[in-house]
Specification:
single chain, alpha/beta, 19% strand, elongated
Length: 133
């Protein structure tokens, strides 16, 4: 006679709880690291500064590489496309913030032109990205 609660025969079910746990942990890791990986794909040698502040604000990322190619959130854009996109974003959210990263080899005049495009769209909360010394 069998004891109550014990099944006879081979175990045919698979416990998937550990598998689900591992998959969820991997998903969280990829979600956290994906923005960092995407940010490093553009080759920009950011200048260093001794005095800077670390802010944790949500901002739109605009960057310019050493060949003066402009990137909006990691995607290449023309100055006209950037101006149009930023104007649309500013209309929907006047409190929009922008983080600007430019290669240290880019001429100052090109950066001023890019700042003028950003300000021309109505956005005046602009942060410049630098490295620590």
């Amino acid at each position: 006679m069998q004891a109550p609660g014990k099944a006879s025969g081979p175990m045919t079910g698979i416990n998937i709880t550990p598998l689900v746990d591992v998959v969820l942990v991997l998903l969280i890791i990829f979600m956290v690291t994906a923005p960092m990986i995407a940010h490093r794909t553009i080759k920009i040698d950011i200048p260093k500064a001794a005095h800077h502040s670390h802010t944790a604000t949500k901002a739109i990322e605009i960057s310019m590489d050493s060949k003066t190619q402009i990137y909006f959130s990691g995607k290449p854009v023309t100055p006209a496309q950037l101006a149009q996109t930023l104007a649309q974003i500013f209309e929907s959210n006047p409190d929009t913030r922008v983080t600007l990263a430019a290669d240290k080899k880019v001429a100052y005049g090109k950066i001023v032109t890019l700042l003028d495009i950003i300000r021309g769209s109505g956005i005046h909360k602009i942060g410049l990205e630098v490295k620590s010394l």
